[in-house]
Amino acid sequence: MESGKDILVPDLLAFVKAFECKLRLWEHQLNQNKFTHFARLAELRPTPAACRRYAAALSELRGEFERRFKDVCACEKEFKLFSSPFDVDSVDVADDLQLELIELQCSESHRTKFALLSPMKFWHSLSASSAFPALVREALRLASLFGSTYSCEQLFSRTKLKKNKTRAQLTDAHLQDVLLLASSSIKPDIDSLSASKNHQPSH
Fold first, then answer.
1. Is the domain of 87 the same as that of 139?
2. Are 102 and 90 in contact (CB under 8 A)?
3. Which domain of life is it from (predicted)?
4. Are residues 64 and 107 in the same domain?
5. Are 113 and 125 in contact (CB under 8 A)?
6. Is the pTM of this model over 0.70?
7. Residue 177 CA to chain centroid, in angstroms?
8. Cα–Cα distance for residue pair 60/34, rounded to 1 Å
9. pLDDT tens-place string over residues 46-102
């Protein structure tokens, strides 16, 4: 399963479903004494009884995944609205989103734009207008859900680096500003910021 800064919950769901499908395939193949994806195991020539044990272990692992991620899978329709809005049936979304979704799906220009952009960039482009306020609000809510602990772990690591014995005078407010700069992917416009300041020439 992949991890990274830009992994969202819809991405996490896709990884989980793909892995569960692989487990189901491997379980079926081992029950059939087939080793298509287990070259090393094929060299060992396991007995049918051993293959059944391996298949049972995979079945148990798949069941554990289903239990662990059942809350995420229960929201699959919501995530699909974010990642594939043009493939969602309007009756499957909340009442306050239905009319906006129909209008969005009937817009060829928006359909073309979605094909050219990532879901995140597509919804960001819509947020600049007031055409689909409810849909954009829902999309931003889904986009705010982290699909991995990468960002949190990275923030804790940077906190440890920034706040140490040599920086004992660092206040909480300054630490917050430093961490915001360290964790943000937004590039500051230095030229615009410096242009608004009064520069004092050296003598």
1. yes
2. yes
3. Eukaryota
4. no
5. yes
6. no
7. 25
8. 19
9. 999 999 999 999 999 999 988 988 887 888 888 889 889 999 999 999 999 999 999
Residues 93 and 38 in one domain: no
Among 47, 73, 99, the domain boundary falls at 73
Dist CA 133 CA 34 (whole Å): 53
Using a 10 angstrom Cβ sphere, with 0-12 exposed, 13-18 middle and 19 or more buried, the burial of residue 58 is buried
Q: State both tokens at 70.
A: 């059942």
**How far is C-alpha 78 from the chain's CA centre?**
13
Residue 115 pLDDT level (bands cut at 50, 70, 90)? very high
Q: What angle do the packed helices 76-83 and 119-127 form, to 10 degrees?
A: 70
What count of other Cβ atoms lies within 10 Å of the Cβ of residue 123? 21
Other Cβ atoms less than 10 A from the Cβ of 185: the count is 6
For residue 162, give every residue at least 6 positions away whose Cβ sits within 8 Å of its Cβ, in sequence order, or none. Answer: 170, 175, 178, 179, 182
- Residue 160 included in any domain: yes
Q: d(Cα 100, Cα 201) in Å, to the nearest integer?
A: 56
Boundaries of domain holding 174: 151-182
